[in-house]
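Input.
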Amino acid sequence: MRLTYRLAVAASILALTGAGAAGPAKRPAAPVHKSLAANEIEDSTKTGAVGPGATGSRVVRAQILLDRARFSPGEIDGVYGDDFGIAVKGYQETHGLKPTGTIDAGMWRLLDRDAGPLLSTYTITQADEKGPFLPLPADVQDKAKMKWLGFETPEEELGERFHSSPKLLAELNPGKKLDTAGERITVPSVRRAAVRVALRVVVSKSKRTVIAYGAGGKELAQYPSTIGDSHNPLPIGHWTIVGIVHYPWFNWDPKLLWNVDPNLAKAELAPGPNNPVGVAWIGLSKPDYGIHGTPEPGNIGHGVSDGCIRMTNWDVDDLSHMVRRGTPVVLEE
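Output.
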């Protein structure tokens, strides 16, 4: 199924267009944190405060626990960033805690009710090693010649599978080869409970969240997102879901993109995790708008999206299995 979308993920689209486009907003440099030790991540006895600026094992522990509780921190990377702060505040509000953005002993007690191991061992398979992994050309027309916009490296694929930055996986596995079959590596255990049906979805522009609600108004999941921009802002209002497409094609039309030379030729881009809209498109009754994934999970919240709602691939995939055609979606300030 091939759809035409009036949207663009700036960080992705600008990378596609090549010369003539302004550069995407750069993600702030992440703080340097100490090397990670598995035993420190698993240690539930350390309940000291974790607030803005924190890095290291305590942050990784909290990120994994929040991910499993479906208060997604975005990419697990061991750094207290914007997405992690959104997850912390959302968890605090939902659980009757003061939304300070700092994890204190009280919040640790609630998080630690999930007593399962936070790390697990994964053996890299021959399929993981084989790929195929291909470099993605910068030019959009060259990209349009590809039949699948897949991962460029095994590290990228593993990072997405375990909701983690490739850098974090490397730090968890010093001396290990992440591209070699048979290698046993340590990874975050990001299992989530079985999905439940969402009866309503609320997208908050000011909070940068996508929240799914179930029966009785119970919050089922909260995800960080990138929402709209000044050129094509979020269409505030009440809408419904009209379709869900996994691994969509993307019809790239420069005339619909404010930051691209309109004289460039149109292009049809193949599906894949590195497609501009990622692994899933949740279309809204507002024509040409929807909720979708991204090829740049580390840039959620650090770029703009042309009116649409952009999430990590694993989060949009999770949401796509909660909603149905006709599910109400509220887009609010």
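The chain has ten helices and 13 strands.
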